[in-house]
Amino acid sequence: MSRILVTGCGGPAGRAVRELLLQRGHSVLAVDMKPSRTAGIEKVPPANDPDFVSELERLARQSPCDLVIPTVSEELPILADRWDRDGIPIMLGSSNSIRIADDKFASCEHLRFRGIAVPGYRLPSWKSDGLGWPLISKPRIGRGGREVVVHESENTLQALDDGYILQEFIPSTEFAPNIYYNDDRSTCIVLKKTKLKQGIVGNASAVMRVDEPDIAELALDAAEAIGLSGPIDMDIRRRWDGTAVVLDVNARFGANIAYAPEVLDAALVDCLHGEHSLA
User: Fold this and answer.
1) Which of 103, 136, 140, 199 has its CB surrounded by the most CB atoms within 10 Å?
2) Residue among 220, 237, 248, 255 at smallest CA distance from 101
3) What distances in angstroms separate CA 184 from CA 18, 59, 152, one per listed residue?
């Protein structure tokens, strides 16, 4: 069995990944910027700290670890740029693809250009509308349901700058495909969000596995279009006519990975027993 460092173990994705690894007999070095002695979580600097990467590398070497799995969105572009890929393997795709996925506006632009269906979108500074009402705003760089707001009129948009993206609101069931994607293999389990924490938007408070082949196909096409490899968590909804569109792309395991353990298993096969490199 392997020793694996998992970041963000104070959050839902990190906790879920840690638990699945322990169930499979692996040893886990759990870290988070908020330590918890009772939960066995070691403190690391936040992602924007200059010492974040060097401290993570030090812990991984000292342990020693066979693999690092980051689960915090803010960490991904920093680790993609600065992690020593010739050292301890990290479950993370290329820097360019990570940065596209990290910026929701860049994701929409990239996917639309490559023929992948996305909601209508614009930046707050754009004069044209065309999205209809209601619409939603969200930070271009953010995670989960944080600061996702439904707007009924232009009046509530005045305070938003171009650090946000506006998107067409699609009032339908939300799906959360959990994916492991690599050139040689792909695994996709589609989860249906049966309850959302904010009612009509936000993170799921309950999910169930469903068989939705077109949702899975769209998710895999989107991953390929961005050039992602490794674990991916997406949000997808259908328009009234049944057309599925990609709302968000997260280049990491999602909070509901416990409902799709095959995705983690596929990733471990490659990263522990394969070539170790996803970039």
Assistant:
1) 136
2) 248
3) 26, 31, 45
Q: Is 213 exposed, middle or buried (0-12, 13-18, 19+ CB in 10 A)?
A: exposed
> Which ranges constitute the DSSP H helices of the chain?
12-23, 52-62, 76-82, 95-102, 104-113, 213-226, 261-273
| Phi, psi of 187, deg, nearest 5 | -130, 130
Residue 74, classed as helix, strand or coil, is: helix
Count how many domains the chain has. 3
According to DSSP, the β-strands at 41-43 and 121-122 are unpaired
Strands 41-43 and 27-32: parallel
Evaluate whether residue 277 is within a structural domain. Answer: no
187-193 mean pLDDT:
96
pLDDT value, residue 55 = 96
| Sheet of strand 149-151: strand arrangement | 121-122, 164-168, 135-139, 149-151
Distance CA 148, CA 247 (A): 12
pTM score > 0.90 for this model? yes
Same domain, residue pair 18 and 80: yes
DSSP letter for 261, please: H
